[in-house]
Amino acid sequence: MKKLDEAKLCEHNLIIYNDLPAFAEIYTQYAKEHLKGGDELIVILTCYETPEKVRRNLSRAGIDVSGYEKENLLTIIDSMKVYQKGRESVSMFFRKALDYAAGAGKKGIVAFGDMSSFMVSDRVEEMLRYESTNPPNLDASTRIKAFCALHRDDFKKLMPNQQEYLLNQHLKTLKVTV
Q: Given strand 74-78, what is the order of strands in its sheet?
């Protein structure tokens, strides 16, 4: 968690997680520590867990999920629904979220986006093109702390040159086990 806390707005980082409990621990602990009185909106784009499962994980940690969702401080969406629509749709989603964050007096957004949805739908090249549009250091006006996530087994399915490319597209890479 300390490495997540060290990340700054406008950073584009990668999390490679070993299993679903490890990923759940990451987003749950971050949300628990940052939603109460925090100055960031949190977006979780999930692949291998349903949004309902993510909500249960957060609720079990004592987080008022429905309250934060009603206040638009927490958004949980199936990543297939977001990433299937193309780059422009994803950009529009985050522009609207950033506008809301600014209007709510928040510094920005923290996004946990599970890129495994590209792997599940056999769209590796599209994932790499998508990642190529997001440099390791995002434009200062972006105000997003981005944590792309990928299951370790999905990362291993990539060719070595694809793995290297993906790692190079991110400022930091965190490998997480629980």
A: 74-78, 40-46, 108-114, 144-151, 12-17, 173-176
